[in-house]
Amino acid sequence: MMDATVRPLRIPPEMAIYAEKHDIFHLVQGWVLEAIPKTQEEALRLQEAGITPDHVVMLEAPDVVLIERSSGKRIDPVTGDVYHVTFMWPESEEVAQRLETPSTLMSADLIAKKLQQFHTEAHALKRTYHSCLKTISADQPHVDVFSQVCCGELLKAVSADESHMGELIKPYLESEQQVPSSIVLQILTERLSRMDCTTRGWVLHGFPQDVEQAEELQESNFIPNRVFFLEMTDDIAIERVTLRGVDPVTGEWYHSLYKPAPGPEVQARLRYKPQHSEAQLLRRLKEYWNHAADLQAIYPQAVYINADQDPHTVFESLESRLVGQLPKVLSN
């Protein structure tokens, strides 16, 4: 038997549901933020108390970017959702008309004054933590908000090992058949029970695909607190997928319209996957639409994102809903 002290820790999914319901995640986050030294004096007091971090990360961005991100925020007084005039504006005209400037929002001049004070303190903090400091540009998408568990990639990883489950699903993947839901759910729940998913959260892409999978996920108590539907027309989906090819030499993907091959030599050697043909894609789209309405009924609080935009805009829309606190659901 495996020693319990070295056995992988499994935290029941009910724990995450309880923590989300009672705002424990945000409570702990608040404690952590309060403990972060904001001045050199606070940092020195921590050092005197014997609290010295092994690593310090400081996010940096040009002042113009910080001012733009702060002054452009708008809030929906009905739902509490936060929007931005540049990165994320509601598609609904009704929502857009009722947006308000947050009462706590500072003017651009006051933000600039606060930034000047911040730079003075930041310079002193850098000297204090020079031996363990790492600076990161904050003028980019925040891509590491949550651990991502892409269902297809997870199945491929399991099939690559020599476990019983890997051998069980390998024939399905090799023949490009759908892996039975019961097997997928068993693999998925094992992965979501690990410490990183419990403490950092998880993102499922491509699952659930139908009502049966959604119900099985709920019965396992792995209940997503945010659900997104990325919307586009079938014509756009076909255009994006069928015109995409991979260079077998470099592994780089190219697209006839959005990212053409750099030259005729590369273009000539591009390979197109059979499953990306228009006929195959139309079949998969038909399956998707057959299940879409039922899935939308199971997740009435889902967020709908217009995916017929540039990737950065779509990501910013998703990110703003991922990092924001969930609105309170009033009980009857």
From TrEMBL:
InterPro entries: Adenylat/UMP-CMP_kin (IPR000850), ADK_active_lid_dom_sf (IPR036193), P-loop_NTPase (IPR027417)
CDD domains according to UniProt: ADK (cd01428)
Record keywords, A-Z: Kinase, Nucleotide-binding, Transferase
GO molecular function: AMP kinase activity; ATP binding
Claim: Kinase is one of the keywords in the record: yes
Gene3D superfamilies: P-loop containing nucleotide triphosphate hydrolases
Keyword Kinase assigned: yes
Pfam families reported for this sequence: ADK (PF00406)
Protein family: Belongs to the adenylate kinase family.
PANTHER family documented for this protein: NUCLEOTIDE KINASE
Name of the protein: Adenylate kinase 8
